[in-house]
Amino acid sequence: MPEISRFFGIIIAMFYRDHNPPHFHVRYNSYKAIISIKDLAVLDGKLPPKALGLVVEWASLHKEELMEDWKLAEELAELKSIEPLE
Fold it and tell me: What is the DSSP letter of 77?
């Protein structure tokens, strides 16, 4: 699963040819979640509230880039890194 960003101990990744809807995977310590790109809803898993807030803030700034990476992943192309939250 290619990592596309990392910040504050949070790892953001995408699988190649993953199922719809477009989403990304988040790992933070022992927590894991799947987040929808469209509405930034948690599709599966759980994150602590502070980590979820940081992920939603980051994703809201990078929705277009996330969708671009989703399309690349569908084509099995190399994913682009996305700037971390600072």
Answer: P
